[in-house]
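Changelog-adjacent note: as of this version, every example in the card shows the full chain rather than a window. The one below runs 504 residues end to end.
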Amino acid sequence: MSKKPAQIVFAYLCLILLTTPLVAQTNPASYSGKRLKRIVIRNAMVVDGSGKPAAGPYDIVIENDLITQIAGFDPVAAKEGRARRPEKGELEIDATGKYVLPGLINLHGHTHDERGGKPMPVEYCTKLWLASGITTVRDVGASKKTLQWRADGAGNTLAVPRIFAYGVFQRSPSPKTVDEARARVRELKSEGYDGIKLFGIDRDLMQPMMDEAKKQGLRVAHHTGVEETNAWDDIKFGTTSIEHWYGVPDAAIESGRQNFPSSYNYNNEVDRFRYAGRLWREANWDRLMKVLDGMVEANVAWNPTLDIYEASRDLQRAQTNPAFAEYLHPVLEEFFKPDLANHGSYFIGWTSTDETFWKENYRIWMKALVEFERRGGLIGVGEDSGFIYQMYGFGLIRELELHQEAGFHPLKVVQHATVNNAKILGHENSLGRVRVGFKADLIVVNGNPLENFKLLYPTGTDEARDGKVIRGGGIEWTIKDGIPFHVPTLSSEVRDIVKKARAK
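Full-length structure tokens:
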């Protein structure tokens, strides 16, 4: 028996619904920053963060703050009536030709509302992070202000990534005795910090401090510096992560100390960073391998922050970033200028010889990083921006590029910034993956970031289309904790902050 005309029309409409990608809402900016009950991302290529190749297309369903469904889409099955797509959401995002990744985790961030004592809106920092696809930040210099911003973000009254606040162990007054060291750890715990940021420390204080941190359930990020303690102490006492790198090659120098000139002054940052550029060449490679093996055995992760020292190997490149034109806040610009009163503003008399040493430093450092992972080590990704010509968010994307330069496959680089970072935070069962049951922290990218990480910058990148050069790429949506942030809108808001600050 033939179908009636009404049935034929209904069947035809159903076929169109099943086979035609659902487009995003006509005014996506109106949904930015608002918590929705249901979001559906359609037709996405997915990089899940685990290191597996991209796959798709998939429809991804977000309900409140969780990923609740990842459904493979088969156009043939849909045409034959054998497949049903997830029901419509309050926000529909058409990801046809786009890639979805886990939200990036910034393992070494600083939430700033001032630089050099001059006020700067904290939204400048936090919105740049979100516009760069960062959904979680470990603030390794957190204060009571940070605790408030963490709460504001959780309540969605401030546009900010999820914050893990690590309080500074050596804040004034710095502990001087074993009892004071243990008391400071308990104090940080009682104040609500998620972990501890440790700078250079003597061995007799590091042991009780680390012991107390474990008792209190606080993870420790250690900026080793040039101190009595180095990576061997991190191995012995069980530090969660080594930040930057100083203590790693230091632990592999046969003489026990770098060959500093007699005039060297560690508190003079020109001296400090000039000779830091000559450190890796003094490390004995065989001894270094033993250090790396010790770190692997003790589960000490390594967060190298390659981006934050890059100006030392190419100062002109750092000072002339084209993104500065629209995105560099004048307060941050002033802080960057050579001035020994500002940490990291040390480029006074910087020479081509200094850059040559630093170029070699990077070659050895990168080789060591690749070897560390090959031996089973856990590598993270952080930016340390707000210093040394690195803007918030931009620094993390540059870090991804530098991991690729070191020799890591783009899939491994993404894993460093997502799954690995979540593991270092101790939240690998809820963060860092595109997976059902995990937190809805996702980014929707216009293009394939595995081919070009520059697509992730808030500025996007130049592309050739139909014989014309256009500005393309960029992240379209950053979804944090199920809350969608429209990145073109965020980027416009940041540019407006900068424009108004310059006008003053």
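Structural remarks: The longest helix spans residues 352-374.
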